[in-house]
Amino acid sequence: MKLIPSYSNLQRTYSMTEKNIIVALDDPLDYQSVLEVLDPKKCLLKVGSVIFNYHGRKILDEVSGHGFEIFFDIKFHDIPNTVSKSIESFKSYSIKLLTIHLSGGRSMIKSALDSCKNINAKCIGVPLRALAKLTIQRMDNDSCLLAATSRGT
Q1: Confidence at residue 17, expressed as pLDDT on a 0 to 100 scale
Q2: What is the pLDDT at residue 128?
Q3: Spatial separation of the C-alpha atoms in residues 64 and 42, rounded to whole Å
Q4: Whole-angstrom Cα distance, residue 31 to residue 23?
Q5: Could you say which residues of the chain have pLDDT below 70?
Q6: What distance in Å separates the CA atoms of residue 73 and residue 70, rounded to the nearest whole number?
Q7: Looking at residue 108, what is its pLDDT?
């Protein structure tokens, strides 16, 4: 198990994808120009909860339709079976990275990792505590998970 001191070292130390640039689609009303000017061979696009809640799966269709791979940042968190089925419901999209909340526990995390493997995506865990210190644990050859540690708790 390899630990990395901070999230900022993620890109230098462990490449989660072949592409080194992730561009966020944050504005649900003004994102189309990003799809037109960026090269899908050079970057991934981040689809977060705001734009996904506004457009639904249509945004994933549109991003995938332009040839982009997706960083799906909606932080899955529920009972293990629900997380697993939710993740696997996105199999037809070009999702390469997605996020889960680590507070879901070991069973939920394992279910999420297994489902990510089934859709050929990598999984990033995020802590609920904003002040937590993030480290990266290599879980297996196909998945990577951010583990949270906090001081004094």
Answers
A1: 57
A2: 55
A3: 14
A4: 11
A5: 1-17, 128-153
A6: 9
A7: 93
Place of tokens 């640039």: 21
Residue 88: other Cβ atoms inside 10 A:
14
Cα 22–51–125 angle (5° rounding)? 55
Q: What is the pLDDT of residue 19?
A: 79
Catalytic-residue membership of 110: no
Q: Could you tell me what percentage of the chain is helix, strand and coil, using 3-state DSSP and rounding each to the nearest 5? A: 35, 30, 35
Of the candidates 2, 42, 75, 117, the residue annotated as catalytic is 75
CB burial readout 19-49, b (16+ within 10 A) else e = beebeebeeeeebeebbeebebeebbbbbbe
- Exposure on the CB side of residue 52, measured as CA atoms within 13 A: 16
Which pair of tokens denotes residue 6? 């901070």
Q: Is the dihedral of CA 23, 100, 60, 30 positive or negative?
A: negative
Report the C-alpha gap between 69 and 42 in whole angstroms. 10
